[in-house]
Specification:
Blueprint lengths: L1 H17 L6 H18 L7 H16 L2 H8 L9 H13 L3 H23 L3 H10 L2 H7 L1 H18 L3 H10 L3
Helix pairs in contact: 1-2, 1-7, 2-6, 3-5, 4-5, 6-9, 9-10
Length: 180
């Protein structure tokens, strides 16, 4: 809990230092993004529910140690950690770059936090409050162990932005994409 309190204090202090200066807005959001990715990426894989260590990390290890044809065999099994084709392909592609679990944690969280920071920067009137709400409502900690649902939330946020901008076709594509 101390980590989250420190992060909230960091967000408030950074907001106080950059408030009213549009030039520093990008720097503010980038610093918040980096802090969230570092906390989510450097944590122990055992933190969180069993889903991460016994589901996602197990699926990551399977993707690292299997060929593409074996990987598609795992996707046919509904109880497999790699039952979603999109997630299985992402795991396999990332495993070709590195087999380190912390690399997986870092890279898999980057899109969610990037979309979150982009959405807050684009649509929020009070940046610090928006980030504090994300932390307080545990959307930040959910990214520790619910990776596939957080990827789905990322696509929903993109769909909401598309609908706000009256780009309904793009919004529908994002909603359909979240399924895979």
């Amino acid at each position: 809990m101390v980590v989250y309190a420190i992060q909230i204090i960091f967000i408030v202090i950074l907001d106080f230092l950059t408030r009213g200066n549009k030039r520093y807005s990008k720097i503010y959001h980038f610093c918040v993004f980096i802090s969230m990715v570092l906390i989510a990426g450097l944590r122990n894989p055992e933190i969180g529910l069993n889903d991460f260590a016994n589901g996602y990390i197990y699926g990551w290890r399977i993707a690292c140690n299997s060929s593409w044809t074996e990987l598609f065999g795992y996707m046919d099994n509904s109880k497999s950690a790699l039952k979603d084709p999109g997630f299985a392909v992402i795991c396999k592609l990332l495993s070709l770059i590195s087999t380190d679990e912390f690399f997986f944690q870092f890279v898999i969280n980057i899109p969610y936090f990037a979309v979150l920071c982009w959405f807050v920067r684009k649509h929020s009137c009070n940046y610090a409050l928006s980030y504090i709400v994300v932390i307080a409502l545990q959307y930040f900690t959910l990214s520790y162990y619910l990776l596939r649902p957080m990827c789905a939330i990322m696509f929903i946020v993109l769909a909401i932005d598309s609908i706000i901008e009256n780009r309904n076709k793009r919004g529908i594509i994002y909603i359909v994409a979240k399924r895979y």
